[in-house]
Amino acid sequence: MPTKAQNLGKGGAMNTADRTRTAATQRPATPRPFTMGIVNADALAMRTLREIIADMVAEAHVLWTESSGREAVEHCLRDHRKPDLVLIDLLLQGLKGADTCLLIRRKSARIKLLATQTFPMGDSRSIAIRAGAQGLVCKDDDGVIVGALRTVASGGVMPGFPTAEEAHHRAVERLGMADGRLTVKEMEILDLMVDDVASAGICASLGITPGTLRRHLQSIRGKLHAGNNVQAVLTWLKGE
Asked: What is the pLDDT of residues 153-205, one digit of tens each?
């Protein structure tokens, strides 16, 4: 049997180099910096999340925090305010967390979405998946939040969740947007209606007349099989 001394020399040098390379590959990679937004209506929860991120996710830079889903959607449509990832509470007031996720997802295949909730609830996971999120975490486990943030920010997903790109394609296909079922103008009108913009404001924003708006709304209701404008907006939000 060869002794340790006999193993030294050329073969030993190669083994040493191999061990050095192996050690290098096993060192944890430095996490890539990423930007993010946080949407949570609970001031205490928001403060806790910010502290967790500041203390444990040094590579994350929080661009903004909001208690309103509508404001979060607006941030994600502005070039200089678009984050890499948004952490969204499902239990938002007004525009619900799932609806906020869905509106962002329809507009972007790049922004990653991580949903949060205070307590585990039966159908929350399926709701978050349908809304286009890449994961769902409870807010009572710091380690899980940190791990999920890093996983999703790096392009990964939690088990059973789609990637941002996959979720985007599903979201647009569900309403037939990919095959031209809804026109770009019709989608813009629906987005403005979600934001509670009045008819006059929609006309001014899109440069159309009230008569043209009425024709668009009639077309939208027909395509979405909605009896009125409220039903059309709800169908648009739910992606059904």
From this structure: 999 999 999 999 999 988 877 665 544 477 878 888 988 888 788 999 999 98
Q: Is CATH 3.20.20.150 what the domain over 34-172 is classified as, yes or no?
A: no
Q: Tell me the pTM.
A: 0.70
Looking at the DSSP bridge assignments, the partners of residue 116 are 89, 137
User: If you classify domain 175-238 with CATH, what class do you get?
Assistant: mainly alpha
Asked if 151 contacts 124 with a C-beta cutoff of 8 angstroms, the reply is no
Which of helix, strand or coil describes residue 30?
coil
64 vs 76: CA distance, rounded Å: 10
Q: Is the pLDDT of residue 76 over 50?
A: yes
- CA–CA dist 202, 217 (Å, integer): 12
Q: Would you say how long the chain is, in residues? A: 240
**Residue 212 Cα distances to 52, 215, 234, angstroms:** 50, 5, 22
User: Residue 235 corresponds to which tokens in the numbers above?
Assistant: 């169908």
